[in-house]
Amino acid sequence: MKPLALSAFTASSCLGRGLDPTLAALAAGRTGLKPCAFETVTLETFVGEVAGVDEERLPAGFEEFECRNNRLAYLGLRQDGFDEAVRAAAGRLGRARIGVWLGTSTSGILETELAYRRRAPGTGALPGDFRYRGAHNTFSVAAFVQRALRLEGPAAVISSACSSSAKVFASARRAIEAGMVDAAVVGGVDSLCLTTLYGFHSLQLVARNPCRPFDAEREGLSIGEAAAFALLEPADRKLSAPAVLLLGTGESSDAWHMSAPHPEGRGAGAAMRQALAAASLDAAQIDYINFHGTGTASNDAAEARAVAAVLGTKVPGSSTKGATGHTLGAAGALEAVICALALRQGLLPGGVNTISLDPQLKVNYLRESRHARLDAVMSNSFGFGGSNCSLVLGKAG
Amino acid sequence: MSAPLTAWVEGVGVLGPGLRNWPTASSVLAGEVPYEATPTSIPALECLPPAERRRTGKVVRLALAVGLEATAREGTERAALPAVFSSSGGDGENLHEICQVLASADRQISPTRFHNSVHNASSGYWGIATGATAPSNALCAYDASFAAGLLEALVQARIDETAVLLIAYDVDYPQPIRSVRPIPDAFGVALLLTPAARPHSLARLTVQLCAAPAERLPDAPLEALRAQIPAARSLPLLRRLARSEAGAAMIEYQGSQSLHIEVSPCH
Fold first, then answer.
1. Contacts of residue B114 in chain A, CB cutoff 8 Å?
2. Would you say A145 and A168 are in contact if contact means Cβ atoms under 8 Å apart?
3. Which of A74, A138, A195, A279 has a beta carbon 3.0–4.6 Å from B140's, enabling a disulfide?
4. Which of B59, B136, B183, B256 would best serve as a mutation to test chain A binding (most A beta carbons within 10 A)?
């Protein structure tokens, strides 16, 4: 594929708002996970909650979009000058020439969960102030972001569970290559809600303690929330160095099980191979891999097998979910942005919380952050329904 | 959109109120038989293992039924076919059950309900049913979900030089969500799109965005269907295909935009 530049990018998670606190936490090996005190949730677990989301207010005229997910999106858009960069691109290219592809798994479902508690006794009717389209619908976050950035190009949400906001990079790059748009705002926004907290709990996939990806005693995932965005443009424009490029995307399906990965990581391996091929790179040219690494027994085992088969056992890798939690539909974009930061800073982020590596997992798992020159990195994202996506990012020049 | 996107339609699947498959829908849309608006009847799924079959709701059965119809021609390799699933909201019944439990004193939701709650549930079950390991997408663009899915599929067909299966589908919601999202019944449509003409191609589609209103259907009950169910926004295109009629179908997209679809029948 033709490389695309990430001409602007930003991420907000429990590590903080924007790139600076994110980088500082990753470099220091700090986790943002805290005991769950979200809403009325009584589960004994840790979550990666973004501080102050509910104090955010959407601008006037955006009342129909009020929900935690869009507040998180709005908070995220205004970090690192991202909204300014998009505005400048719109001035240069035209508002209709910039598309919006965002990933989310649950969008504003929390609003519906809360509205169900306020149903009218007797009739069961929803409260009159409940707005399904702007507050809950899966597309709401893309509609909101498109309007907040005053863009007029095509827009869609990709919602394939935990691969959602990795797959937006693949869809956007195809649309740019086909000439449908000249640039794209891609990203992921997913926020805490009861459905995912109680849902993953029902599948016995939630850890009591902060998640420990690739640890011999890993006991499941910790749920987080995040908003992460990137502006993708053809790399032929003169870019401010050191520019980060999207070099390859790979997608596949497991065709195996709704909530468990293929045990050999069949689909994961196919996505990784495809991303390498699209980037015209050999496995040996990958300097770091950001694992999907949820911390569940089955994910980490299947992923380790796939990585060993495709990249070998030497490439250093880590899961940053010990720091951020699993941000589900935002994880792909959050971890792509972490990879972009890693490339820019020459930083390999160590995976936090992991104490004793699982000897069954034949990967070179990094527990301490270290500095080194990075030219190309890979990020993995795998979701329910057997949806896999791998991205390869690199440095220009 | 600078350059128009082109693809050929090789297979069609339809299931909606009074439209139980593409041959039936085709006769109705061609004006050969009158439209009778009977409730959508979604068949049981024979293609899934029994354990998986028991877990699927209406939305998955609908999506798989139209997908299977569009790819029923012998020689169509479902396992190697990339797919684009697009729905304005997914499984409303499942959502209702989850929200109901979460609003109660005991919040223990069913694990099956939870994994079925993902927007890409149909895509996941499609993979299990057909062995499809190719890339599969799951889109949502509210009322423009059919058009957004079509654009995604056309772009993928061109850039990856592959046939792509588009499946757009919506089901009705139970109360109380139905009061805020009044989709009256289930409707699904699937198109098997190829990047070049093949012996069994039905028509060539040439698609561009344009700033004109969507086309309405002359027949009032069918127009009501089009206006009320997002996936049925595809009906003007299906009508042209049914009539083997050259000309443009205007399909609702976002804002004030429509998809201008030039349909050129192959036979």
1. 195, 198-200, 202-203
2. no
3. A138
4. B136
**Taking CB atoms and an 8 Å limit, are B118 and A383 in contact across chains?**
yes
| Element holding B123 (H helix, E strand) | helix B121-130
Mutation choice for A interface testing from B118, B128, B170 by most A CBs within 10 A: B118
pLDDT of chain A, 397 residues: tens digit per residue = 999 999 999 999 999 999 999 999 999 999 999 999 999 999 999 999 999 999 999 999 999 999 999 999 999 999 999 999 999 999 999 999 999 999 999 999 999 999 999 999 999 999 999 999 999 999 999 999 999 999 999 999 999 999 999 999 999 999 999 999 999 999 999 999 999 999 999 999 999 999 999 999 999 999 999 999 999 999 986 666 679 999 999 999 999 999 999 999 999 999 999 999 999 999 999 999 999 999 999 999 999 999 999 999 999 999 999 999 999 999 999 999 999 999 999 999 999 999 999 999 999 999 999 999 999 999 999 999 999 999 999 998 6
One-letter amino acid for residue A155 of the chain: A
* Residue numbers in A near B63 (CB within 8 A): none
Q: Which of A346, A351, A337, A347 is nearest to A303 (CA)?
A: A351
ipTM score assigned to the predicted complex: 0.97
pTM across the whole model: 0.98
Measured from the Cβ of residue A42, the count of other Cβ atoms closer than 10 Å reads 9
Nearest chain B residue (CA) to A156: B141
By the 8 A CB rule, do A357 and A240 touch? no
Inter-residue contact A329 to A103 (CB < 8 Å): yes
Using a CB–CB cutoff of 8 Å, tell me whether A167 touches chain B: yes
